[in-house]
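Quick sanity check, stearoyl-CoA 9-desaturase:
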Amino acid sequence: MTETETRNHHDDKQQNGGAVAEPSVEDVFDDTYKMKEGPKPPRMLVWRNIILMTLLHLGALYGLILLPSASVSTVAWTAVCYLISALGVTAGAHRLWSHRSYKASFPLRVFLALGNSMAFQNDIYEWARDHRVHHKYSETDADPHNATRGFFFAHVGWLMVRKHPDVVEKGRKLELSDLKADKVVMFQRRHYKLSVVILCFIVPMFVPWYFWGESLAMAYFVPGLLRYAVMLNATWLVNSAAHLYGNRPYDKSINPRENPFVAFSAIGEGFHNYHHTFPFDYATSEFGCKLNITTAFIDLMCFMGLATDPKSVSKEVIIARIKRTGEGSNKSG
């Protein structure tokens, strides 16, 4: 990215109601970072993660085979678990805790933290830290899932190898006092392993077995492993497919793309060129609730008084940005 392009990436001001809202420094691409020249550090495999990912996907495949025999109630419960765990990532770890794009009441933060544990994608503190690093050093050696290293690496390979030293270094230097000050975040972090065992595996399995007599095997492999694996891959597609495939109507100088399939599977997180251009817009899209269940959920929480101060970008700013840095696509989204 050139200096001019980077400045364009920074200098838009967002409209929140009638007030101008400046971006958080942790959301903004850092153009002062320079990748080190010379050979890259050796790639060190994390065999524990490789083995666990393999076993999970084998179990999910078996769950897929079992799925046609599952009861309607079990399929419905699987969908409910998927939605709760997805919201724990999208409305919680991502839009609330990583980008601070709206404010959430204590009950809502507790619900989102429970959903995040059901999703089992690292605790909120670690997830938000890595995501802020991703935005600040996107597509560089300091990006945890740098998409320039290929689809597989951006999708899941980054979890199968040790982090690049620059990822670790930059993560340690981030300002994370807001996360440390949130009692819900730190409570979940202290009790993360237990919460994952209970919420990601036991609860999804126990409910269909206890309440409508589903077999333990069906309950474990369908709402348990199959739901978990599909949720993981939907999130990973934001890092891989949404950085490689789609159009760039807002900023053609960055890799993230608008990808409707990813938006559908990740309940609203596929409008990625928009999101990296305006990272603290609570909707992550200019189209409101279109293919965006997460935005609809946050809007509902605001209506109920459980969430406040959603940050958004004015239509005038969006149009000006499209004209200045967009690739000239026929339509955005």
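Posting the structure with no commentary besides this: The chain is about 60% helix and 5% strand.
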